[in-house]
Amino acid sequence: xxxxxxxxxxxxxxxxxxxxxxxxxxxxxxxxxxxxxxxxxxxxxxxxxxxxxxxxxxxxxxxxxxxxxxxxxxxxxxxxxxxxxxxxxxxxxxxxxxxxxxxxxxxxxxxxxxxxxxxxxxxxxxxxxxxxxxxxxxxxxxxxxxxxxxxxxxxxxxxxxxxxxxxxxxxxxxxxxxxxxxxxxxxxxxxxxxxxxxxxxxxxxxxxxxxxxxxxxxxxxxxxxxxxxxxxxxxxxxxxxxxxxxxxxxxxxxxxxxxxxxxxxxxxxxxxxxxxxxxxxxxxxxxxxxxxxxxxxxxxxxxxxxxxxxxxxxxxxxxxxxxxxxxxxxxxxxxxxxxxxxxxxxxxxxxxxxxxxxxxxxxxxxxxxxxxxxxxxxxxxxxxxxxxxxxxxxxxxxxxxxxxxxxxxx
Length: 410
Prior knowledge:
The chain contains twelve helices and 14 strands. By secondary structure, it is an alpha+beta fold. A seven-stranded mixed β-sheet has the order 2-1-6-7-5-4-3, covered by helices on one side. It has a five-stranded antiparallel β-sheet with strand order 10-9-8-12-13. Strands 11-14 form a two-stranded antiparallel ribbon. Strand 6 and strand 7 form a beta hairpin. Helix 7 runs antiparallel to helix 12.
């Protein structure tokens, strides 16, 4: 861990300063020689000298990502989580370490003339030529046990429709088109406007699912391989409760383009399959359970609404209104727990065959999935599972299974 003992030493720290006249670009910031803003940051505040917001950095020399601990209490809480996990030999903690970025301690920089602490983490997109990254916040409840009533109300209104229906929300993503190579970014304002269909469309967009084209099925299989392992962990761990924590999913679009060529196929429908409305309205909501087997795949009933189409993710004003937002946060667990014996999905495909305890977590180099954001992690309660996290994770798995088995994929 790198620390500085005295405030008198602040002048010796690497300095990030605001100098809009000297540096072109919206941030108006100058960075130390080996530091640069993390280009694939898709959630949280970016660097902005005028507003004095601090974003994430990457060190070109080491490749480490530097995450700012700008909110003192929350930042110290996340640092304590990583430190405890790093030093723990508890079997649950040891297993959890497989699914989070490697932690290298902390360092301090002088940012806008103030001392700022940063966590140093492994960059999961290192080596990716065209990193496509999505931040998926897991759980229908995102407020922790210490939240004030006001904070709780605020959290319940954020991403309400997505959290209520799926038990997760998309806070932003970036994707390189496999056809043109063009980069598109979708920020948290875009994510807040996603309706039920919009969540599915965002996942399809992130996965480069293109109408009238065959898309590499291996991509979804690799992502599911990671998610099954994390799901297994949440089917047994009772030590932690994760609130407002995310899954960061990344893949290299260049690899996808080179190894999964997109060819025209007249047999492929010229529109991406959507939910079968009649089927969805006729069956109860279910969440998968890996301990049960069956022949039913995606069988749950979302409320069908018009989704956001082709948002440009620049500002909220450019995003069509999704209609009246919901004012309540309904836990997916409440929707699904009434029929636990019906929880089922098939795992007999190629993903299930690869999903073995002996398969290293990072066997695939061009696809990575990590749990991130640990400012709201609390001890488990009543020796019970973290159903809030697990249910959202299982809903995500179900959506990916649906996308994987669509007729547009080979």
